[in-house]
Design goal:
Number of strands: 16
Helix content: 25-40%
CATH architecture of the largest domain: 3-Layer(aba) Sandwich
Radius of gyration: 24 Å
Number of helices: 13
Order of helices and strands: EEHHEHEHEEHEHEHHEEHHEEEEHEHHE
Largest sheet: 8 strands, mixed
Oligomer: single chain
Bound molecules: S-adenosylmethionine
CATH class of the largest domain: Alpha Beta
CATH topology of the largest domain: Rossmann fold
Shape: globular
Amino acid sequence: MLRWPASRPYGDEDHTWWVTSDLAELATRAPLAPDHVLGIGGASTTLAQWTPRTPVGRALDLGTGCGVQALHLSTHARAVVATDISARALRYAALNAELNGVTWELRRGSLLEPVAGELFDLVVSNPPFVITPRERGLPTYEYRDGGAHGDYVVEHLITHVAGLLAPGGIAQLLGNWEIHGDQDWRERIGDWARASGVDAWVVQREVQDPAQYAETWARDGGHHPATPEFARMYAAWLADFAARDVTAVGFGIVTLHRPTTARRPVVDLHDVRAPLTGPLGPTIADGIAARVWLAEHTDADLLARPWQVAGDVTMEHHVIPGEAQPRVIRLVQGGGLRHTESLDTAAAGLLSVCDGEVTAGAAITAIAALLEEPVEPVRARLVEALRRWVAAGVVRAATAGSSGSSPGT
Ligand SMILES: C[S@@+](CC[C@H](N)C(=O)[O-])C[C@H]1O[C@@H](n2cnc3c(N)ncnc32)[C@H](O)[C@@H]1O
């Protein structure tokens, strides 16, 4: 059957590209072919927005499809390798590279196999992460389904992709993960993150129940509810989830970083459901730098520095009318991953004096004296808070003549 391609303009703040892919089901009004090559979707733009755009040497786009991530990589990587299992996808990627005047090395093969033994400074992947029942006769789609059981593709990538990272290199991928029974999502993903052997920062952005997930992905291929095909897929999804006691499915962004020094990797797992806007690449780059600094410095180093509260941080005071003291004080970050937390009097005091002048150690001694509390427990509590704030970009190390820069720079 002849299938029509579709070209559309797409870009970032500084570039406009033409991207060609297969025509989506909304245009064809028919179920997609199994080797359908996806255009630019929500997941594509999510990954593109979260990727740090720091200049790098070699970059890899694993599961390139029509090449959308590779186009972004071309703006800040000296060399781009793009892989896919689909010959059709690689033909579109080659066409898009040509159309946009860029050069990529395109390689066909599954997951890590086409680049085994090589090192990259940046790896990005919007992999085929959709958890799909492996029931005979159900339609499968190369663009979203890696052919494995459950969330194995994502587990495999998280636990193995760091083998491709040069020292200081970053891998960033999207994924779905199963949440079993009443387990906290951090248990399974934490195991995968630790198994990666490098720093891992996982942000869970959404959680769907099995029924919502089944409906989303049964519809996604262009199948309409109330058709026998849809009903069969929906039932198969629910049965597959029930067989493994899957009670929810998480979606998130995983960032891995290979340290440049011999130390224990940092594993950080966060649930961030707040709406986020704008490119988050700078937040990821700063967040990695901050985590590296924290891993390589002691509490004494932290206390010896003056810290400066970032310009997008405010404190909300919730006061019962007629009362003088607030009942609740909340820290609210306006940008980044929109960190929020409730502050006790000591933490609110410390944040208020993070003016880039006074060291955290001196501030904490003064706060303990004002509160008439022994200094040791106050210091222990506030060091923990300060570490959280540094990681989240709520405070930054003050440097002479600046309004604050990342720790470690
Ligand atoms: C969700 S699409 C992502 C396309 C594009 N990178 C983007 O960000 O929109 C996943 C891609 O992975 C490819 N793929 C599926 N199974 C694969 C495998 N085992 N190894 C490598 N790529 C695979 C698909 O052909 C598809 O192009």
